[in-house]
């Protein structure tokens, strides 16, 4: 029951945060001015990208472009445009509680970054995110960029430390657009979001700019969350269980050193994964079944008795695993995966008895669950996934010995449903 609750908690905490890898139609403008068109891996960047992965088509090799070599990144399918701009960036802006200052010190430093272009027109709106802190930039004709950033700080108030909001973006905009009454009306109600600031900029463009025309908008503020994908498949392989008797003292025991299993068993089942937009993180669930223990009695001798006794421990093991998987792309169609989660076991048709002096006694039941998660690593390529999974189980204490079970499995999964990321992309 504890393991089940932990699995549910993990799914709830991370279900809305899965992110991931998808190639989309787009183009790059290189630093020397050339434009290359093809497919770009949409990593759903929040911070400005450091590296952009590009391929001319699904059948060609990947090219990795460092951000410093790019003037522009355009995802034409979704309408996201990132352009290199020289911007004043105040990296003192913080919203994380453990990093909040006790006062606001503005110290913008010019830097060149790939920024999201939200509006291109008489007044332009750009945006970047640095460590979950949003920065927006407005520039109108013959004026320099105005930076607006999300500031929070700590202040002592009546003996209590409280978090204060230091983001004065409305005051900044009122000063910047002081000569445009329509923009001022929008500023007074605008939230500190891309959509809210777009409304301000477009009010100026339409009614106060020299051309009195709205600027060209992009959909960049809508690209941070898109549909996840479901991957359904079958899995098969082998599982090795170890359940050895450990002698805590030097007593001579009948079963000392005996491994009740100690051999591989065939294992199979089905899996269901939910992988987020950029294909970097996903929820993984799998239901597996395998035999365990010895199919025939294990004969042992020992103790002060003369003769042969036996121990029999076997049955069917049904396991449910649930957790998180991370994916690191390697090449065009492959990725390294790593993950962790919890396993819930059920033992069916169990035979577990020891025969001593011709008398049979019931004995152990199975692995006892624990809070120790399983660990896994593997390789995914198109429909196939090869994983190595291992876990320690809770110690079991008996009067004269201790059991410390562990398991190791090697599995090959095959995805049954089609991969939406591999479908042909629309042309420009």
Please report the total strand number as a whole number: 26
Number of domains: 2
Note the run of SSEs as H and E.
HEEEEEEEEEEEEHHHEEEEEEEEEEEEEE
Distance between the termini: 53 Å
- Radius of gyration using CA atoms only: 30 Å
- What structural category do the secondary elements indicate? mainly beta
| Percent of sequence in beta strands | over 45%
Q: pLDDT under 50 segments (min length 5)?
A: 1-20, 423-428
Apparent shape: elongated
The helix tally amounts to: 4
Average pLDDT reading? 83
Q: What helical percentage do the residues reach?
A: under 10%
Largest sheet: 11 strands, antiparallel
Explain what the structure shows:
- The protein has 428 residues and is mainly beta.
- It has two domains: 13-222, no CATH class; 229-422, Beta Barrel (Porin), CATH 2.40.160.
- Helices cover 10% and strands 49% of the residues.
- The longest helix has 14 residues, at 194-207.
């Amino acid at each position: 029951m504890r393991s089940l609750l932990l699995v549910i908690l993990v799914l709830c905490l991370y279900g809305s945060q899965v992110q991931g890898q998808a190639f989309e139609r787009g183009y790059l403008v290189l630093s020397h001015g050339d434009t290359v068109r093809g497919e770009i891996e949409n990593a759903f960047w929040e911070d400005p990208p450091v590296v952009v992965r590009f391929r001319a088509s699904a059948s060609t090799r990947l090219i990795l472009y460092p951000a410093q070599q790019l003037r522009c990144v355009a995802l034409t399918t979704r309408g996201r445009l990132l352009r290199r701009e020289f911007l004043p960036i105040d990296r003192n802006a913080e919203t994380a509680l453990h990093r909040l200052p006790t006062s606001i010190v503005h110290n913008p430093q010019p830097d060149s970054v790939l920024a999201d272009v939200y509006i291109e027109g008489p007044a332009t709106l750009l945006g970047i995110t640095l460590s979950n802190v949003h920065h927006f930039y407005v520039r109108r004709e013959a004026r320099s960029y105005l930076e607006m950033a999300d500031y929070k700080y700590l202040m002592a108030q009546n003996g209590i430390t409280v978090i204060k909001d230091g983001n004065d973006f409305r005051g900044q905009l009122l000063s910047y657009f002081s000569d445009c009454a329509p923009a001022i009306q929008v500023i007074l109600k605008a939230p500190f979001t891309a959509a809210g600031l777009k409304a301000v900029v477009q009010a100026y463009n339409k009614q106060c700019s020299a051309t009195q025309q709205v600027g060209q908008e992009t959909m960049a503020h809508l690209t941070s969350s898109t549909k996840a994908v479901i991957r359904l498949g079958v899995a098969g392989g082998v599982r090795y269980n170890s359940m050895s008797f450990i002698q805590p003292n030097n007593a001579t025991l009948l079963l000392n050193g005996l491994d009740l299993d100690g051999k591989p068993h065939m294992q199979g089942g089905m899996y269901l994964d939910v992988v987020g937009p950029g294909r970097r993180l996903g929820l993984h669930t799998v239901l597996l079944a395998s035999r365990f223990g010895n199919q025939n009695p294990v004969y042992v001798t020992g103790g002060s008795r003369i003769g042969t006794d036996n121990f029999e421990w076997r049955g069917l093991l049904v396991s449910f695993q649930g957790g998180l998987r991370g994916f690191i792309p390697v090449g065009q169609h492959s990725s390294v995966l790593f993950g962790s989660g919890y396993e819930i076991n059920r033992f069916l048709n169990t035979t577990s008895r020891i025969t001593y002096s011709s008398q049979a006694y019931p004995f152990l039941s199975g692995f006892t669950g624990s809070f120790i998660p399983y660990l896994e690593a593997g390789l995914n390529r198109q429909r196939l996934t090869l994983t190595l999974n291992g876990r320690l189980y809770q110690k079991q204490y008996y009067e004269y010995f201790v059991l410390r079970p562990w398991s190791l499995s090697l599995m090959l999964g095959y995805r049954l449903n089609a991969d939406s990321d591999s479908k042909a992309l629309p042309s420009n």
